[in-house]
Amino acid sequence: MDQMDVAYDLNRALKGTLALVLAGGRGSRLMALTDDEAKPAVPFAGKFRIVDFPLSNCINSGIRRIAVPTQYKAHTLIRHIQRGWSFFRAEINEFVELWPAQQQTRDEAWYRGTADAVYQNLDTIRAHDPDYILILAGDHVYRQDYSRMLAHHLESGADVTVSCVEVPLEQAKGFGVVDADADDNIVGFLEKPADPPHMPGDPTRAFASMGIYIFNRPFLEDLLEADAADATSAHDFGKNIIPGLIGRCKLIAHRLSDSAVRSTPDAEPYWRDVGTVDAYWEANLDLVNVTPELDLYDQGWPIWTYQEQLPSAKFVFDNEDRRGMAVDSLVSGGCIISGATVRGSLLFSNVRVNSYSTVEHTVVLPGTDIGRNCRIRNAIIGNNCRVPEGLVVGEDRALDARRFHVTERGVTLITQRMLEALDSPAPRSVEPA
Q1: pTM of the predicted model, to two decimals?
Q2: Contact 380, 418 (CB under 8 A)
Q3: DSSP letter assigned to residue 239
Q4: CATH architecture of 314-423
């Protein structure tokens, strides 16, 4: 088969692929950041939401049939996708469809796991009649060319391909770890093992599952039907489906290094599960570095999103005692730095920092207003907060922990509900009559 035939086969396979971006989870380790919206809808990198990354990867890879199953507090997520991802042409069978949990099976249950979320939509999947199903997590930040992964799936003759990121052995203890032979055939799958198996040819690193899978459609249907009938199953791909396939089919590990989109040839593949407050804070603030690990300025692999129309960021006052300035920071549209100093921080859209305040190493989510004379350091400030004048955060950990949520790394998470509680009178004790 010549190169033209190979390219044609891959193009046909891409058109025959249906991507499912699983976006129904809360992401409880993000604490109060997901009190009102699902983890895939959480803002990231100044103007995006986490779900924009797998969706953009699909578009840039040539996959234009996409479904997004949703469940937990999905209003923000649904609104974002409707506003920002409605540019597809149904006439040529392109779409991004939202699949809210609808209790479509006889059990009339909500999605009970990642596999069940797909199983409950089997009738809709069959109606689209894809050849391949690409399963994606809607809550990870990375850039990957899925067409390369699909090409590997086709070339290997696999029934299932699992995308894996290479991690140091010590870090692998917190992941689902894939054990593979020298030909990348998966021979074992262990969930958070104390002694992870190393990857072929490198005793210092292991394969961690990214929660990204390609299935041949008929094969997946049979698996899901059997799993649904198993009362002992958690109905989850990582816990049940993939481990249960060991030795039963052609199961292949795909290395992220073979399909990662890099800014430079020697750059490390970038993949982050921003599922904890510390990881979320760190990944956002990495973007203010001179050379961040995630290059959002790469026009060859753009990240798409809903583009809200906002005025440019504004910096006002240039007096010795108050100077509106931001250094080593990202400042998004609609922001006003009014006589305040911002250092090493990331400000999302429509943030205002008022006079005589200092914000350092802090992630400030959209719509927040920081009052005068505040000193904020090493923090995440949630959506639409009204930070009172004179608030000091990041200088007294014990005090911060009594008022807000402080992580192991000392990052303080602040939400509007927490700020409102500061003004609430302490409950009075009631003496017995």
Answers
A1: 0.92
A2: no
A3: I
A4: 3 Solenoid (2.160)
Contact 217, 159 (CB under 8 A): no
- Does the 10-288 domain belong in CATH 3.90.550.10? yes
Phi, psi dihedrals of residue 150, rounded to the nearest 5°: -65, -40
Domain boundaries, the chain: 10-288, 314-423
End-to-end CA distance of the chain: 92
Distance CA 115, CA 237 (A): 5
Q: Is 111 annotated as a binding residue?
A: yes
Q: Is 97 annotated as a binding residue?
A: no
**C-alpha angle with apex 279: 274 to 284, nearest 5 degrees?**
80
Nearest to 46 by CA among 223, 297, 215: 297
Spatial separation of the C-alpha atoms in residues 182 and 194, rounded to whole Å: 23
Residues 423 and 389: their CA atoms lie apart, in Å, by 13
Q: Looking at the chain, how many residues does it have?
A: 433
Structure tokens at 62: 């040539």
Q: Residue 313 and residue 144: Cα distance in Å, rounded? A: 31
The secondary structure of residue 42, as a DSSP letter, is: S
Question: How does pLDDT run across 140-197, given as a tens digit for each residue?
Answer: 999 999 999 999 999 999 999 999 999 999 999 989 999 999 999 999 999 889 999 9
Distance CA 58, CA 83 (A): 18
Q: CA 235 from chain center: how many Å?
A: 22
Q: Which amino acid is at 195?
A: D
Element (H, E) at 65: strand 65-70
Q: Is 157 annotated as a binding residue?
A: no
To which H or E segment does residue 22 belong?
strand 17-22
Return the pLDDT at 102: 75
In the block, which residue shows the tokens 């039907």? 225
Location of structure tokens 């299935």 = 215
163/371 Cα distance (integer angstroms): 46
Q: Residue 298, exposed/middle/buried by CB under 10 A (0-12, 13-18, 19+)? A: middle
pLDDT tens digit string along 355-375? Answer: 999 999 999 999 999 999 999
The annotation status of 174 as a binding-site residue, yes or no, is no
CB atoms within 10 A of CB 306: 16
SS3 state at 204: coil
CA distance 332 to 24: 28
Q: Is 263 annotated as a binding residue?
A: no
Rg (CA), the chain: 24
H or E element that contains 5 = helix 3-15
Beta bridge partners of 98: 68
